[in-house]
Amino acid sequence: SRLPHRSACTVGPASIRSAKGKGMSSSSSAAEQHGHHAVGGRELVPLAALIKEESRTERHAVTRSRICAREDGGVGGEVGEAETRRPLLRYGCAAQSKKGEDFFLLRTDCARPSTSSSSSTTSHPPTFAVFAVLDGHNGDAAAIYTRDNLLNHVLSAMPQGLSREEWLHSLPRALVAGFVKTDKEFQTKGQTSGTTATFAIIDGWTITVASVGDSRCILDAQGGAVSLLTVDHRLEENVEERERVTASGGEVGRLSVVGGAEIGPLRCWPGGLCLSRSIGDIDVGEFIVPVPYVKQVKVLL
């Protein structure tokens, strides 16, 4: 039976934690770039406007820091991004894996190449953090390969010489390309295992999440507002994914037992996978796709 465990990654302004979670029922495969939205009773400004405002504020903060240093008689050293404005990340991981197929990726020191005027004068290169949950099934090969290669594939899909604004704007498309390349390369190995993948990149106060499968990422913001940054690609709950699979020629149904009774969750046949999107799963046909749902949000202070 290909019924993968269900994992989750929770993201907050100052904390990352992992836990088990339940499913959701909608799906998309592109970054949401709409107008104003109301979440948790608060109106959200379009992402592009927020990124532009943040960059301008950071430049002003750098200028004020330099002026204060001169007034205080300080010498030496250029002042980069205001350190007090960057989020403090506290993180950890915990798991209850019975089959040894679940893996995590925790990195807080990934270098982001940049040519922007505000970052080119800093004494330390700009960095971003990556947190990922990989819930494997039918073996651990897909989860391990994704853990070891997905980040490199995402970065290789990014154009060179980008400013921070351009970097953030390009992330959603690069994440989609990275997921697809990871799946394509893994399938050449002939392994039949598969994995969910929830991949969160935190750059300053901007969080970009890409996911396939049902490993959740939850934003727990100040004021008690809780938002899902992923959707679950489970055929049992996701009507849109059921329609996509059947429209592509796949069959969705439950496991049949002796006597004609049907048991268990809805699955895609052939293969019997209860997920509609994953990395790997070469033996379940072209109906299971690696194209992720991508969401990018700005944490408001």
TrEMBL record:
Pfam families: PP2C. Its EC number is 3.1.3.16. The keyword Hydrolase applies. The keyword Hydrolase applies. Residues 1-42 are annotated as: Disordered. SUPFAM superfamilies: PP2C-like. It comes from the Eukaryota. Keywords: Hydrolase, Protein phosphatase. SMART domains: PP2Cc (SM00332). Residues 78-301 form the PPM-type phosphatase domain. Residues 21-31 have a biased composition (Low complexity). GO terms for molecular function: protein serine/threonine phosphatase activity. InterPro entries: PP2C (IPR015655), PPM-type-like_dom_sf (IPR036457), PPM-type_phosphatase-like_dom (IPR001932). It catalyses: O-phospho-L-threonyl-[protein] + H2O = L-threonyl-[protein] + phosphate; O-phospho-L-seryl-[protein] + H2O = L-seryl-[protein] + phosphate. This is protein-serine/threonine phosphatase.
